[in-house]
Amino acid sequence: MHSFTHSLYMTKPICQSVSVEQLIDQFAERFTAAGLSYGHGTDNAIDEAAWLVFAQLGLAHGDAPAAYAQIVEPAQLDDLERLAKRRINERLPLAYLLNQAWFAGLEFYVDERVLVPRSPIAELIRDKFEPWLAPDSLRSAADLGTGSGCIAIAIASTFPPRPWTLSTFRTRRLKSPQSTLNVMVLLIVCGLSGRTFLLNLRAIPMT
Fold this sequence. Notes:
Blueprint: H1 20-34, H2 45-57, H3 64-69, H4 74-89, H5 94-98, E1 101-103, E2 106-108, H6 121-126, E3 142-144, H7 150-158, E4 164-168, E5 189-192, E6 195-197, E7 199-203
Parallel strand pairs: 3-4, 4-7
Antiparallel strand pairs: 1-2, 5-6
Helix pairs in contact: 1-2, 2-4
């Protein structure tokens, strides 16, 4: 789960135009009133609203105080309002609306064809499976029913290059991973820690 802690930076609005801070506060109130459920990247309304606004506007989480003071342009506001309404009315996970999810510190493209990555295996991968396995002893791994491909990709980004395998039972689901990480071309995964990994794709058709 990707953690957002923007509530630390919330202050009273000082300008009459709609700021990022004001918009996040308004969306959070509406999410709470709508009784939304969370768990696909956040666990509360304020962080869900912050994720929506920051992701859609391309804002940096590392400079949240400055980002909160930014004024939202009318065209941007229209897009954000549309997404907020869909989140409330359709009850779609925000990860699907934004096509964005986080797993083991990596960003993934997701849509309705795959489950939103949220497995506790992420913590095991980041710890290189210690103390249960010696990191040097891991020679291969298979991500079965891969969906977004997040487990195999996280392993490939954490360990030295080896023949990691992604397997799925529905070939159409392999079209989802990863426009940003280019896992759609499953033989080459680029942009992970500046390295390139070889992945072996096995598509097993259902009978």
